[in-house]
Amino acid sequence: MTDMDKSSSEKLVLEFKEDTALTEMMRRRVSSLQKTGQKRQDGERLLLPFEAVHRLDFPVQELNFSRWYFSLLGHGRVTITGISQHWTPDLTNLMTRQLLEPIGTFWRNAEDPEESPLKCLEADMQEFGERIAELAKVRKVMYFLFAFKDGSTAANLSCTIEFIPEK
């Protein structure tokens, strides 16, 4: 059955929302390490200046991935990295082993017309969406690192993911 065969009432579209408090907390961690001259914890993943933490809140847990919706004004590259369900941001630092694969990447090159469709690695985006649906079964919230490169900004991005709830 294709997406067109499903009624819209059976679809659940969730928006990735920036978690500004968590992003700021992680930026303070970087700043604190820099000020004190300390090194990061072995295996710790520090937030880079062009990254922000986003979250998805799942109102239901039994979901099947359907599709991505993303738009980007202008040019640039956005990567989305999922974070394992084992990360508890209020208790522990983010560790590299908690980053999930594959990552989602989409972009529009500087030489591409602005109205041209965004490019992506479709197989990775499909697998990534399926992985998110799988992890939703055990989490009500999932966190992601969004990286904005090559001229992209959070203000120019719209990113949602569509699921079909299991009956």
UniProtKB/TrEMBL annotation:
Pfam families: Olfactory_mark. InterPro entries: Olfactory_marker, Olfactory_marker_sf. Coiled coil: none annotated. PANTHER family: OLFACTORY MARKER PROTEIN. This is Olfactory marker protein. It comes from Characodon lateralis.
